[in-house]
Amino acid sequence: MGPHLDPFLVCATIQHTKLCRSVLAVSEIGTAQVLRSSIVPSSPPPSYFTSLKRFRDELHNERCLELLLLAEDTPCLLLDIGCGSGLSGSVLEECGHMWVGMDISSSMLDVALERETEGDLILADMGQGTPFRAGVFDGAVSVSALQWLFNADKKSHQPIKRIYTFFSTLYAALSRSARAVFQFYPENEDQLEILTTQAMRAGFYGGVVVDYPNSAKAKKFFLVLMTGGAAPLPQALGTEETDGLQVKYSKREATKGARGKPLKNTRAWLLEKKERRRKQGKNTRPDSKYTGRKRSGKF
């Protein structure tokens, strides 16, 4: 970066035959740094990135692109949130799109620089907001990054506040017809609820799409957010039932597999389990009026 550039007003200009826009790379939000704003040919990834990881990242990013529902044969400017070493950005390049990547890890961005990725790279903490001017991006994608907003690495970190800051600034940076798609790994239903609530509070519409909901290994969560008003969520993979595809601020995913069966830890479930044990010849206590009743915790 040249010595005469104002660190709070750096503009990375990306040119294309059909698209030419300016991106405000540093603003008063956070402490983002522009690592490079030139476009150079890409090169193969370093040897220490295994083919398995590359395949997984590319697969997830391809699915994110599908859920964005971008117009065909139209180059778009996309934001890759948590871009890491730039592996996911290569999928965007292959589809003819331009991209800007942001990540909190300087070491991962150094690897992306060594790979000479075509996207522009910015060192920034997404919990402090996306440092771009309003309406500049046609869409945003993120692979395996959103869940890290729940970490409190400093005493000043308040996860819910950071999540809202991220979603509100991202909403401002997207055009009013854009979408944002996040592939992430929620730990529990509470995290799903927090993410969707804060996203709606920031102005987004949308919900969670669950691919292969009945598979322990292939199951994937995608948060699909829209800026242009409410619309049906995209079709999920691995299921034919419309009701089981989308999770909108509810615990449907947790109870979907239990249809027609007693819910776990209820009296009916316990009685059924005890009857199975008796048929198996196992020593089982007799049923009583106290079977399945919750204990008060007082002795």
UniProtKB/TrEMBL annotation:
GO terms for molecular function: rRNA (guanine) methyltransferase activity. Pfam families: Methyltransf_11, WBS_methylT. It comes from the Eukaryota. Its main location: cytoplasm. Keywords: Cytoplasm, Methyltransferase, Nucleus, S-adenosyl-L-methionine, Transferase. Residues 79-161 form the Methyltransferase type domain. One of its GO terms (cellular component) is cytoplasm. InterPro entries: Bud23-like, Bud23_C, Methyltransf_11, SAM-dependent_MTases_sf. The keyword S-adenosyl-L-methionine applies. Heterodimer with TRMT112; this heterodimerization is necessary for the metabolic stability and activity of the catalytic subunit BUD23. Interacts with GRIP1. S-adenosyl-L-methionine-dependent methyltransferase that specifically methylates the N(7) position of a guanine in 18S rRNA. Requires the methyltransferase adapter protein TRM112 for full rRNA methyltransferase activity. Involved in the pre-rRNA processing steps leading to small-subunit rRNA production independently of its RNA-modifying catalytic activity. Important for biogenesis end export of the 40S ribosomal subunit independent on its methyltransferase activity. Locus-specific steroid receptor coactivator. This is 18S rRNA (guanine-N(7))-methyltransferase.
